[in-house]
Amino acid sequence: xxxxxxxGIVHLFERDLEITQRTRRELEADLKLALQRDEFELHYQPxxxxxDGRVVAFEALLRWRSPTRGFVTPAEFIPVAExxxxxxxxxxxxxxxxxxxxxxxxxxxxxxxxxxxIQFRTSEFLRDIAAALEASGLEPGRLEIEITESVFLDKTAxxxxxxxxxxxxxxxxxxxxxxxxxxxxSYLAKFPVDKxxxxxxxxxxxxxxxxxxxxxxxxxxxxQKLGIAVTAEGVETVEQAQVLRARNCNDIQGxxxxxxxxxxxxxxxxxxxxxxxxxxxxxxxxxx
Length: 288
Ligand code: C2E
Ligand code: MG
Ligand code: MG
Ligand code: MG
Known about the structure:
Blueprint: H1 2-36, E1 40-49, E2 55-66, E3 70-72, H2 74-84, H3 87-102, E4 110-114, H4 117-121, H5 125-136, E5 143-147, H6 156-168, E6 172-178, H7 185-190, E7 195-198, H8 200-204, H9 210-226, E8 229-232, H10 238-246, E9 251-252, E10 261-262, H11 266-280
Helix pairs in contact: 1-2, 3-5
Bound molecules: ligand C2E and magnesium ion (3 copies).
């Protein structure tokens, strides 16, 4: 009897697995069509300088509007896109669209584009970057690519060569989600990095948890020594922004300022964010 029941459980499990695999295959099939059907768009989230409240950059964040699934978040489709290799074509689309959009922004406002480690390691990556810059006419210094520490884990020679090549062309390199991966401070000295983005998990409890504040202070101290700029991600409260500002963190990004918004709202954000900022922070910033 136990055996029979065991078999039943196995069948149940197999059925679940079948369903999971089918769901996954369907997602893959839809994702493949999404690009040619033009279902992806980029939304943009401002990065604000703590010194004066000005918008210094926008991060481009992918959104998938599927006619059958509705709105699908990057957390759901990026892992599938990476596993199937589709991330290369999707990432190329994001790069081109972001550069085209940013070329219309005023002043020196930069655009930050997320690059998957898989996309970063392809042989066509540097060509894709050059093509996106050329087609848009965007100055290389206004493009910032966001990579995670996982790109440092293998193919070190290619990674290093790619990073130096990007740097020599004037493109900026940001380390995303800093502190969550296999963080090693030695990476910071070894690889050319212009900016660190402190992961929002550290920012979340800075007002309550001493431990996280100590981590943030340590990151800020080492970044300042190495001449690397720091952006704090996921800033949601005035208190968090004040703590970061008092410690000379360069920029903040988060729902306190604005979530990611469609490109059409960018002119409004460029005008509104500094006004809101000065209402939140009437006192002058502490000098270095
Ligand atoms: P990320 O690069 O770390 O982007 C920041 C994420 O945090 C975004 O989620 C953003 O909407 C969210 N966020 C910003 N401020 C706050 C806040 O104050 N509170 C909270 N709770 N969340 C905040 P999103 O847009 O869902 O993107 C998730 C991840 O998907 C990104 O994390 C990035 O790793 C990836 N991704 C997005 N677009 C692209 C892309 O074009 N290419 C690649 N390869 N990955 C992308
Ligand atoms: Mg990012
Ligand atoms: Mg991030
Ligand atoms: Mg993140």
